[in-house]
Design brief:
Elements lengths: L3 H7 L1 E3 L3 E3 L5 E3 L7 E2 L11 E3 L2 E5 L2 E2 L1 E6 L13 E6 L13 H4 L12 E2 L2 H10 L4 E4 L8 H13 L3 E6 L5 H7 L5 E5 L5 H7 L3 H14 L2 E8 L7 H14 L5 E5 L14 H13 L5 E4 L11 E2 L6 E6 L2 E5 L42 E2 L7
Parallel strand pairs: 9-11, 11-12, 12-13, 13-14, 14-15, 15-16
Antiparallel strand pairs: 1-6, 2-3, 3-4, 5-6, 7-10, 8-9, 10-20, 17-18, 18-19
Helix pairs in contact: 3-4, 8-9
Amino acid sequence: MATLRDIVDERVREGELYEKLDRNRVRCFACGHCCPIPEGQPGVCKVRTNRGGTLYVPWGYVGGVQSDPIEKKPFFHAYPGALAYSFGMLGCDLHCAYCQNWVTSQALRDPAAVASLIETTPEKLVREALRQGAKAVVSTYNEPLITSEWSRAVFQEARAAGLATAFVSNGNGTPQVLEYLQPWVDLYKVDLKSFDEGHYHKLGGRLQPILETIRRLHQMGIWVEIVTLVVPGFNDSDDELKRMAEFLASVSPDIPWHVTAFHKDYKMTDPENTPPETLLRAARIGRKAGLRFVYVGNLPAQAGDWENTRCPDCQALLIERHGYRIQSYHISSSGSCPSCGKKIPGRWDTSFAGQITFSPLHSRRSRAAGLSHIQEPTSR
């Protein structure tokens, strides 16, 4: 019976984000590693492979699909209450010990990650998103930069159908991949995991490409929101949180910063779960650094007003939340504060149509209409 590696290797096409080098090597530009890949080998991500001097990339499958409230991504300043049809493939260019999507992201590295695939097409994914009433189609669960060709194909179909598009990513990009994606991506969530080079090395990456990605996305006019998972003993010092917040404020004080609670997962079971007071401290640091929109996540009912959106000028309550649930919505049809007229940065509908769901509609492992499960693999 075929292994997962065999199944993945059969579902590929030639990539677009690479250049040919000498000795049948190729250089990939999908992520900040810019791997020079020898013939017959994959890059760091394990899914982009050099065959005879041609780079082959994942195509024609998903490792999971799920419909979520857009607030779960999290996007707080983009179409509140909307349904986000989320899909992902396999693989990642980092190896975070606390990864919450490790079953898909680490499937080709970790024998404990038992993943199955669903064969599909961009047309089928978009058709299912429309059937469920989604507003946006989101590439997530693995690292979408390493499957950018597939994501772009899905997004082209989504745009043609009137849907918004989004990346949920670690942000380890390159100028080449961001230029390739720019015409087709509306929203982009970046995980800023640390502001320490040594910490990023432990996760398998570097800090500078993430910072450059954040700057470039903002310059491109793509709507950006940032998430920092605050891990006790890893990135929760006042100094590191201050440097993160000051960097974001230097790019734009209007970038929303979500500081969210770590809980024990995957290989990281040593630190205690993040206490509420740590996130409240991080939020205050972000506000003091000049960020106008700072949110505390993963602790509903324990974050106080830090779950809500307020006008940065007059402090009027604009969106009241409890976790992913919208409890009240007051932004005007022009995307402004109804009290003082301040334009609120984000991507807003002309009216709030209500919220389809404040929890996932189905497991991302379940069969979506029109999608076919591929034969279960044996092992790696």
